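Colleagues,

For the teaching module next term, I've prepared a clean inverse folding example: a structure given as tokens, and then the sequence designed for it. I'd like students to try predicting residues themselves before seeing the answer, so please don't circulate the second half yet.
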């Protein structure tokens, strides 16, 4: 009674209260988390010595779940702790698990603890009696949820009985890209297999659920296509000029400039240029991608934003130009810079979507003095541009809009620290901010009851993301607006997503109607198949990693092709940081600014490093144990010369030679032999 559960919530938790593994499928705003708190409470009451872990996939959800749900209802009777990447408890996760009844953490922290064998940090799945997995539709492929559950399933198939009960929470498992009922059913069954759970939803009390969780009023705010776009046309003229310079044959057809498809083409061209040792092709492709980015930004936000992207890119190019290709590309931009600047400032040809977006925001914020909204856009660049536009728009400022950016946590100029994320969300909750301009980081789980406007701007996403974003509009008479160009792909995708949402519901219905015996057999078959597939993939991965002797692999800068290191110079620290221990390597790079990173347990960040010859950024320095200054390298910035030709890798896990663990004692002995003798 204290929980105030609705009857539909009581309905969906019944099987979990009997100890079964279940996935709760309720719409966004339906109270999945509150239902999970209730299950956790009953589990702790009925099982002396029980241990509960609540896993989330976004850092800001750790504090939200702790402060808003679990601690208010369980904190007086049980010991709870919240742990995320920016707190010290994560370094002694094993100890924290022993000391508390319920742990709320990001899934990656649990995954790290499962793999870390150090005492005080290691945990086993068998230490928990209940695992609550938020946004559990992410339990697939190589996601961290699925890595955790793969261990669970492997132990289950071996006959291990000391495994925790599973409670998954989702607003939509989606169709996995399937557009047929058969494919959608297979996807839902795979999610059930990955979580070793049945999927439950409200049947008896579905009318109450529908009444309790009204959908926001959806509308399409459509604008006509720009009648003229001289700025965009000039960019396309320059891109064609580069193509003529490249002299590509008919085997490389050019798709439409300013599209995602064209971007995919130039990515392939750059890779071909690097692997073929054709620097002209590689560099032209890199510059064409910048022009294509500018066209995409011109189509999304203001012309001046697109111009600034190019202006910033070329501001450093004159100091790193090294051959005729560089001077051609730099000269082309410099010859056209004045004209581009002039065209970008001509208000007659401004993006009409901006005017429509302004009207959409004003309509909601002028009529409602307490309005709160979230504006979703695709990229960090676009949300930075939108924030600048909102902050400097007189009409929006007069309407009292107080905006802030919300992006994912990470490194770099357009990322946020975890504390910055928390502060922004807290200020939005309190009302000192009333508009979040966000990437997809705010689509899932963000609980702001007062939010009454969601705008999707320039977005092409799947049905899960659409439902999640729509569910952020929680207040009564909320508006869900899609600002898009007439006949554009955004509208078509939104309409397709509505069909896929319906298909998801029908697929879940079919799965729920399966005979229990048939369902369990199917789940076991899928789990066995997945286990064998993972084992085979791991064998192939190990074989691939030992394909070449590290001493026979040479690393060259991806920007200028200069050989700078050998494979055996590279060592790995904590299975994460790949460093070059060769003291001669420092002559190949120059240092720049300090990255926005905190200090970690054993190391702190140094300066950004880049190629001394061409300026290509390579990574950053790390100061390890206050002694060793080591360059951390991102392999995507290098080409690898192997006995079988030049190869590329996006991640270190994809390289075809073995990288040995860094030995600190050996390093110190080699670096300071006299001091240690």
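(Answer key — instructors only)
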């Amino acid at each position: 009674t204290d929980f105030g559960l609705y009857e539909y919530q009581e309905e969906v938790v019944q099987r979990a209260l009997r100890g079964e593994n279940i996935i709760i499928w309720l719409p966004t705003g339906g109270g999945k988390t509150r239902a999970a708190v209730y299950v956790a409470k009953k589990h702790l009451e009925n099982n002396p010595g029980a241990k509960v872990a609540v896993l989330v996939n976004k850092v800001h959800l750790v504090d939200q779940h702790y402060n808003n749900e679990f601690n208010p209802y369980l904190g007086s009777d049980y010991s709870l702790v919240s742990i995320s990447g920016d707190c010290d408890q994560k370094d002694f996760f094993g100890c924290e698990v022993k000391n508390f009844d319920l742990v709320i953490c990001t899934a990656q922290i649990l995954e790290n603890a499962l793999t870390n064998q150090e005492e005080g940090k290691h945990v086993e799945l068998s230490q928990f009696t209940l695992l609550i997995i938020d946004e559990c539709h992410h339990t697939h492929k190589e996601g961290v949820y699925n890595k955790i559950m793969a261990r669970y399933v492997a132990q289950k198939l071996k006959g291990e009985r000391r495994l925790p009960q599973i409670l998954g929470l989702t607003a939509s498992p989606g169709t996995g890209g399937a557009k047929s009922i058969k494919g959608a059913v297979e996807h839902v069954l795979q999610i059930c297999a990955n979580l070793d759970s049945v999927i439950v939803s409200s049947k008896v009390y579905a009318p109450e659920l529908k009444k309790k969780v009204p959908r926001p009023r959806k509308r399409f705010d459509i604008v006509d296509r720009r009648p003229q776009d001289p700025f965009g046309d000039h960019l396309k003229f320059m891109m064609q000029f580069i193509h003529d310079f490249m002299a590509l044959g008919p085997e490389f057809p050019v798709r439409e400039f300013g599209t995602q498809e064209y971007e995919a083409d130039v990515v392939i061209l750059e890779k071909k240029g690097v692997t073929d040792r054709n620097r002209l092709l590689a560099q032209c492709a890199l510059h064409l991608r910048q022009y294509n980015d500018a066209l995409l930004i011109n189509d999304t936000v203001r012309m001046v934003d697109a111009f600034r992207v190019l202006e910033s890119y070329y501001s450093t190019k004159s100091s790193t130009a090294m051959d005729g290709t560089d001077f051609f590309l730099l000269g082309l931009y410099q010859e056209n810079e004045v004209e581009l600047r002039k065209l970008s400032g001509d208000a007659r040809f401004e993006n009409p979507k901006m005017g429509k977006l302004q009207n959409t925001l004003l309509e909601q914020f002028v009529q409602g003095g307490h309005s709160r909204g979230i504006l979703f856009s695709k990229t960090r660049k676009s949300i930075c541009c939108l924030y600048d536009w909102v902050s400097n728009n007189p009409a929006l400022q007069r309407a009292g809009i107080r905006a802030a950016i919300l992006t994912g946590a990470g490194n770099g100029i357009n990322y946020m620290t975890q504390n910055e994320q928390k502060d922004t969300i807290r200020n939005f909750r309190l009302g000192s901010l009333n508009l979040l301009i966000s990437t997809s980081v705010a689509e899932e789980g963000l609980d702001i009851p007062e939010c009454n406007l969601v705008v999707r701007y320039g977005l092409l996403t799947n049905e899960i993301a659409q439902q999640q974003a729509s569910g952020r509009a929680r207040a009564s008479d909320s508006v869900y607006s899609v600002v898009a160009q007439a006949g554009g792909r955004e509208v078509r995708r939104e309409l397709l997503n509505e069909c896929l949402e319906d298909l998801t519901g029908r697929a879940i219905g079919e799965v729920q109607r399966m005979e229990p015996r048939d369902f369990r057999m199917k789940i076991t078959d899928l789990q066995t198949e997945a286990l064998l597939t993972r084992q085979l993939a791991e064998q192939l991965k190990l074989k691939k990693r030992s394909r070449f002797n590290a001493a026979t692999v040479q690393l060259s800068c991806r920007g200028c092709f200069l050989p700078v290191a050998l494979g055996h110079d590279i060592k790995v620290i904590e299975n994460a940081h790949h460093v070059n221990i060769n003291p001669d390597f420092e002559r190949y790079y120059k240092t720049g600014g300090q990255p926005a990173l905190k200090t970690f347990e054993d190391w702190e960040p140094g300066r950004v490093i880049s190629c001394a010859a061409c300026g290509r950024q390579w990574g950053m320095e790390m100061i390890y144990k206050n002694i060793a200054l080591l360059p951390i390298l991102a392999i995507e910035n290098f080409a690898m010369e192997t006995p079988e030709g030049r190869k590329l890798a996006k991640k270190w896990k994809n390289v075809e030679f073995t990288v040995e663990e860094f030995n600190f004692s050996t390093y110190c002995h080699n670096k300071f032999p006299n001091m240690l003798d």
